[in-house]
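Look over this one:
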Amino acid sequence: MRVDLQHSFIRLFIVSLVWLLLEGVFRKWLFYSLAGPLFYIKYLLFGLTYATFLLGKYPVMKVKHVYQFFILLYILLCIYGFFNNRNENPIIVAIVGLTVHLLFLPLTHTTQFLFRNLKKFGTFTKIITYLAFPLCILGMVQFYLPTDHPINGFVNEEQLISRVSGFTRISSIFSFVKIFNAYLLFSITYLTGAILNKLLKGQSILLESAAVFLLIVNMFMTGSRLPLGLMLLNFLIIGGYVFISFSNLRKTVVVVFTLGIISLTTMYFTTDLFNDPVDATIDRFEKAEERHRTESTGYTDIVLRIEDRLDIFKFSKYAGWFGYGIGMAYQGNFGFIKHPIPFYFEEEGERIVLELGILGGIIVVLMRLALFIFAFQILRWTTSVEIKLLLLPLLLYILPGIFTIQNTTYSYMENFFYYLAIGLIIALYKIQQKELRKHH
């Protein structure tokens, strides 16, 4: 019997996505004692997916663009980091590190073969819309339950479930709050563009609007400041860009955003469902700021955190040009590391430099910048308004990675969505190229 490897690639990709979504269910509720081994199943599934892609005779990536050159440099540096075992730790540290850094990177190339036309993007929009309802309803239930309720557990008992103004910070079906944040930010940003695209076509946006509302409510229920800030910033940029760039959509943008603000304001003053999480989040922000603001410095928590995240080379004198070796700063490796880096670190950029050195920090930032510039050039080049409206949210989603203000590498869900967004951008680029060839 002959195996259809091309269809196997598609089926395995879907299975991998389903597992990625449901992993937390198995790890924190069904098979808690196996939470450690279950964590690595997603890497195995995606590895098999890429293997069937290669065996299925799909074309491999050729280095034609600047961003591809930096991707290649990044891969080579990670391989060097695998052998750069400066502190003489077990090989498992480097194996896990290499997996964490590179396993989702192929999505930048493989995604285009799954999204070959705009109809596929329409299906993707429906999936994100429908998923929002059960995941967000569960989140709302969690918000009002005590932290010790069975459905409010985390995978790691050492990470305590926190409360905000008496309410639980939610994670829905995901392992931790930050994993849920990554899903929420991607879904909200993507659906915003999809809604404007449907309005352009004169289609109903009732379901998508309801999904976005639920996702926004859940975002407030997580009490996380950075994702909330990025969400609001993305709304402003998308609305402003569409208003300035498309005269035929100006009234639509004004009406949609005005109705959105009125609806949210009305919900805030009339329902606890929106009022409670917003007030709880504001209270958390204020308490965090009070703890860090002093008369001598005037610094606030937000300022300190941003400065800390932007200063990626703070440990460069210890890391040197090539770092301590890949995997050394990954939180999941702490149980394997026998000789750790001898000081505290936390933020994304400084961890990359500690693992891959000053050279690694430079290459990662330049790679992400090149990817953003490539996407921005596509946005300017494409003649399709529909593609522009789908492309802009994806462009905004990958922007913060340049400044290393998120855990784009060390949070697997943020890592997945980052490279998926790039893959979707490249898929839109290929679709536009096909359309242009048809007309010539």
